[in-house]
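Summary of Year 1 activities. Much of the first year was spent building the evaluation harness for sequence design. The harness presents a backbone, in tokenized form, and records the residue chosen at every position. We chose the following record to illustrate the format because it has been used consistently in internal testing since the harness was completed.
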């Protein structure tokens, strides 16, 4: 399995968790939305950590590029963390309108971010890290499962 395939699969998993939270919120069940969004948050934060602690450093070490696409991805991860935390706070406060506003902004940002990773960064990683991609995918699998 390539780096791109594995991380795209994880993007879809995170998207499914996000959709479950939105569905519960749309049904007016903020407790269920909070639980589902907590699962989404945990999965996304593990995904970010795997990229930031494993994938990006390996890519940067191989290419010497530390001010390029990985820097942009880290910045976007920070912005999405803030939106996720704001959405969690809105659910905890029982403010569905605020949650939906944060979730809409987050969804747009995630879609744009994932497109850049899936179509630009991950293929670059597969190309540059081809000789170690199997080990990297195994390490990422362990990290994303919380092992």
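For this record, the design step produced the sequence shown next.
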């Amino acid at each position: 399995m390539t780096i791109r395939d594995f991380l795209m699969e994880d993007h879809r998993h995170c998207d499914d968790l996000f959709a479950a939270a939105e569905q519960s919120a749309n049904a007016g069940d903020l407790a269920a939305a909070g639980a589902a969004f907590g699962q989404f948050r945990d999965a996304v934060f593990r995904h970010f950590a795997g990229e930031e602690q494993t994938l990006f450093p390996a890519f940067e070490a191989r290419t010497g590029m530390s001010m390029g696409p990985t820097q942009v991805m880290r910045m976007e991860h920070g912005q999405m963390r803030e939106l996720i935390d704001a959405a969690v706070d809105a659910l905890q406060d029982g403010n569905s309108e605020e949650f939906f506003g944060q979730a809409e902004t987050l969804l747009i940002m995630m879609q744009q971010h994932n497109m850049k990773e899936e179509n630009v960064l991950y293929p670059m990683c597969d190309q540059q890290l081809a000789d170690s991609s199997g080990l990297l995918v195994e390490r990422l699998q362990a990290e994303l499962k919380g092992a």
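The chain has a mean pLDDT of 95. Quantitative recovery figures across the full test set are reported in Table 2.
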